[in-house]
């Protein structure tokens, strides 16, 4: 897991730059969206002020429904926890899909078999899962192409993969906000177009 820890440290080092962005409009209007998508967004937003640290250390956790301490986590934990609030356990779903389709998943970490402690906490694995089990949409840079509850992946400087959930709120310029953890805990920010978008997913179990 040394590579994973180095990636976490690199994100922390870059967060001061990455978190800077245009000011948000006061009382930004919320966008109409399906009820299930709004529930996902609210569950992600509820993590703000709870998850206050970025910590990518490998931990042994329960399976299923295992989690690291709520005050810490990485970008994937925002997504996993938001879906868990809907009764959807991505830890179990990703593990089962990896067992069924091991060759479809990336082999970036030298694993010989699935690992329930970490597989669902890695952006490339979530991207494959959402592409296989959900809807994969164009990785557009047009803000109007994104809906509340969509999940987006980016490549941060240093080739660091990242993921977040599209909010139902918009910036002063009309760009949907993103709920994510890029180094300072869960935040809701104008970050959709800040980095290279590598994936756009819509999922409804």
Largest sheet: 6 strands, antiparallel
| Average pLDDT over all residues | 89
Strand content: 15-25%
Shape annotation:
globular
Secondary structure category = alpha+beta
Radius of gyration: 16 Å
CATH architecture: Alpha-Beta Complex
Q: Within the CATH hierarchy, at the fold level, what is the topology?
A: endopeptidase fold (from Nostoc punctiforme)
| Total count of domains | 1
Pfam families: DUF1287
InterPro entries: DUF1287, TAT_signal
Protein name: DUF1287 domain-containing protein
Keywords: Signal
Task: Describe, in plain words, how this protein is organized in 3D.
With 205 residues, this protein is an alpha+beta fold. It has a single domain, classed as endopeptidase fold (from Nostoc punctiforme), CATH 3.90.1720.10. It has helices at residues 2-18, 35-45, 75-84, 90-100, 123-133, and strands at residues 53-54, 72-73, 135-137, 151-156, 160-170, 176-181, 186-189, 196-202. The longest helix is centred in the N-terminal third of the chain and has 17 residues, at 2-18. The radius of gyration is 16 Å and the shape is globular.
Task: Supply database-style keywords.
alpha+beta, 205 residues, single chain, endopeptidase fold (from Nostoc punctiforme), globular, two-stranded parallel sheet, 8 strands, 5 helices, TAT_signal
Summarize the structure.
The chain has 5 helices and 8 strands; from the N terminus they run H-H-E-E-H-H-H-E-E-E-E-E-E. It has 205 residues and is α+β, with helices and mostly antiparallel strands.
């Amino acid at each position: 897991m040394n590579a994973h820890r180095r990636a976490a440290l690199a994100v922390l080092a870059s967060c001061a730059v990455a978190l800077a962005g245009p000011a948000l409009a006061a009382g930004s209007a919320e966008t109409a969206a399906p009820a299930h998508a709004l529930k996902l967004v609210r569950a992600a937003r509820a993590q703000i002020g709870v998850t206050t640290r970025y910590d990518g250390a490998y931990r042994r956790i329960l399976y299923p429904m295992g989690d690291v301490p709520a005050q810490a986590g990485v970008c994937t934990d925002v997504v996993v926890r938001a879906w868990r609030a809907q009764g959807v356990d991505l830890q179990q779903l990703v593990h089962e899909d990896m067992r069924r389709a091991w060759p479809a998943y990336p082999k970036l970490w030298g694993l010989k078999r699935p690992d329930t402690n970490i597989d669902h906490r890695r952006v490339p694995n979530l991207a494959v899962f959402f592409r296989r089990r959900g809807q994969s949409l164009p990785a557009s840079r047009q803000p109007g192409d994104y809906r509340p509850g969509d999940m987006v992946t980016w490549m941060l400087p240093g080739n660091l993969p990242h993921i977040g959930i599209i909010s139902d709120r918009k910036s002063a310029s009309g760009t949907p906000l993103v709920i994510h953890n890029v180094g300072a805990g869960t935040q809701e920010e104008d970050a959709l177009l800040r980095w290279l978008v590598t994936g756009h997913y819509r999922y409804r179990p």
